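Hi W.,

Here's what went into the run:
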Amino acid sequence: MGLKGKDLLGIRELETDEIGLILDTAESLKEVSSRDIKKVPALRGKTVVNLFFEPSTRTRTSFELAAKRLSADLLNISIATSSVVKGETLFDTAKNLEAMMADIIVIRHSSSGAPDRLARRLKSSVINAGDGSHEHPTQALTDLYTIRERKGGLSGLIVTIVGDIAHSRVARSNIYALVKMGADVRVAGPPTMMPAGIDKLGVRVYHDLDEALSGADVVMMLRLQLERQGKALFPSIREYSRLYGLNSERLKFAKKDALVMHPGPVNRGVEITSDLADGVSSVIMDQVTNGIAVRMAVIYLLSAGRA
Amino acid sequence: MGILIKGGYLIDGKAKMGEAYDILIEGGKITSIGKDLSPGPDCENLIDATRKVVIPGLIDIHTHTREPGYEYKEDIRSVSAAAAAGGFTTICTMPNTRPVNDNRTVTEFIRSRAREAGIVTILPIGAITKGSQGVELAEIGELYDAGCMAISDDGRPVMNSEVMRRGMEYARGFDMLVISHCEDANLSSGGVMNEGIISTRLGLHGIPPAAEEVMVARDILLAEYTGCRLHLAHISTAGSVRIIREAKSRGIAVTAETAPHYFALTEEAVEGYDTNAKVNPPLRTSLDMAAVREGLRDGTIDLIATDHAPHALEEKELEFDQAPFGISGLETALSLTLGLVEDGIFSLEEAISRLTINPARVLGIDKGYLAVGVDADIAIIDLDDRWVVDPARFRSKGKNSPFAGWKVKGSVFMTLAGGRIVFSR
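Here's what came out:
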């Protein structure tokens, strides 16, 4: 079996067995990265385009390595949204790439829905590498993989996601993914950072961090967008950090063997203290390593489905 | 010289006719309504309206004609043709053109272009403030002299309550209608759709219903205080309907409109990031839609306006948060309104009144009914005709419709404006 759609746009559209397939495929591909020669010929002759309309080092590099380790040809295109020539739409750009026979287009865009709209118009496979506040499916799959690797499974685990849920694509994708896989998902943060109707996604909402951490197996910290202070979402970094920052004292409310996760980049001392980010509970670097295997799996499965 | 419309079933929101009559038109006016009228020697056109319904030409109080400045979206000729195809014989143009219609020169330009097009009656609406910047009052007296029917800063709500108060007071001196686009620009800032579970799922920035409702409440209070005639544009939320109902029960001189998309669609139309469903105010929930329908039924909402907002294809092809707000609405409004009759919201007569006599009364113009002596502004409609909405066939340059592919019932057979046939199917 393969993936049902031609694209990976979000976790919301994925079925549970598709998620399982991606994670299992990633597991068998992870070994490639530890070889002396980190390459398999699976995607020889295929072209993958990284189309990034928003600055990103981590995700772009991760996709780049994933494509290269599968022997695909890779093209990196970074376009500052502000400098897009007036009159040339996203569709124009993408159609040009398709005319150049790109097999897979990996897109990062500041506008929610840009990958969806693109995918409808193109025959190429589209992978969403993060769109606005909508979804970041490969990050969530990476997080699932990392949790599964450490905990042996996902069902029944208590996972607490902390921070600006309203503006976080990582949070949305993780909520869909974790709920589908049977985890007990909690979200924590001030009410100004909770989007309307979030409880309808099957999560429990907490405004008290200690309570939200109580008995948790996994704590997922989100990056605080510091500029949102000016939008009246929180009063100051000081108060945010005091109420919703994770430190070792607080972590004691969670289970002893709780994992600490962060999609990066970390604001050290704001949402998480340095000692925790680098501590024994932290799997932040595992997330980075696993990200490559998961993205290899996604590229491989989408490409295989089209062969 | 003359046109005879034979055997049509007459409906008009004013006098209850409800029977087949003939209408004789001479010199651009209705000269006779009766049974078995004979064509006479001067009759140059005999129109068989048997099994069709003859109604007053529709009146749209809220049209964006885009000219001057945005002729690539729409111009006065194309909007006139779109209006005629939709059964409209009178449209009011919102002032958010480039330049803004905040002075006599722009008003006169619009009126002269309308005369050149010579298709339907176009009534300009002037701006409340210079450039619709919300800071200084426009020369409202001159706009009045130049022929503006009303003033509005549509699309650019007057945020400063003191400026709005003075605008209302000043307009009262000319007994001019003030039309308010109710939106608190801080509450709606950055928003692109209704705030709720759908915006959360799609990761789109939401506009809460309160962004509309606080301004509905503010403007009603200011109208009560200043004694100005206030008309509230495109009402979309249950809360707004409730506030207006309460205001009317206290006898405040406020009227209100909604647009077909607010009684025919909900926020779910945005799923899939359909930019044709991006409109301001945004499509709301099914509860809001039910309240808007109830408001139309009980008269809290006086009339239906199109808020016809044509855009170029490439603009609506942008990313959802970048695409402009608006729906091209002139050519679907009548059929969607007739859908409310099918749904049992109100009678056919009541439906027609919301598009004819009611907007005429709000504007204070002698149109919107059928009688001897009035302008021969008439639409002949076929209630049983079923058709599929295909924006590619719109007369409007704006093909941006979320109703593409909808199967609707009831179509325009013919439109006459000032006694001339301006549309015929």
